[in-house]
Amino acid sequence: MCSSELSVPTSAHVDVARTLVRTARMLDRVDSGLTLPQYRLLTLLDAGDERSTALAERLAVSKPAISTAVEVLACLGHVRRRSDDGDRRASWLQITDAGREALGRADRAYAERLAEVTGRMDDPSAFVSCFAAFASALDTDLSERRAGRRTPQPPAYRPPAPEGARTA
């Protein structure tokens, strides 16, 4: 079971952040057929059609960056554009069957790599359970931020002063 004692930033949070960055780098090296940005984009489109401007916002990238990514995915046959009847300047994006197949291959490749690592743990199911709880909290946080209901932020983490250092 996951501990609920770490609601204020600690050095453990720094360790988790660094591990998540290392994990992203590990997954980036997996031969999944997609880059991580392409994977993120297809994952969002798999949940439903989306306007490119909304995707750029959700992925926290610029509109030109999303346009470039979409162009590559469209050339690969993974994404289809369709015009917005109400706004000629906008277009809707949808994942194609080929895109779903590519996403499925990437899902399997990433899951296999993660299983290799979690297989080295004493209790991989506890990790998966805690990470599922983290994913749920992340989804809640994102929904609240989108709705403008930002949750109060805990105080910033400050590492302990080295021994013998003067504190103000």
From TrEMBL:
Residues 13-140 form the HTH marR-type domain. Keywords: DNA-binding, Transcription, Transcription regulation. InterPro entries: HTH_MarR-typ, MarR/SlyA-like, Tscrpt_reg_MarR-type_CS, WH-like_DNA-bd_sf, WH_DNA-bd_sf. The keyword Transcription regulation applies. The keyword DNA damage does not apply. Pfam families: MarR_2 (PF12802). One of its GO terms (molecular function) is DNA binding. Residues 152-162 have a biased composition (Pro residues). Residues 142-168 are annotated as: Disordered. This is DNA-binding MarR family transcriptional regulator. The lineage of its organism: Bacteria, Bacillati, Actinomycetota, Actinomycetes, Propionibacteriales.
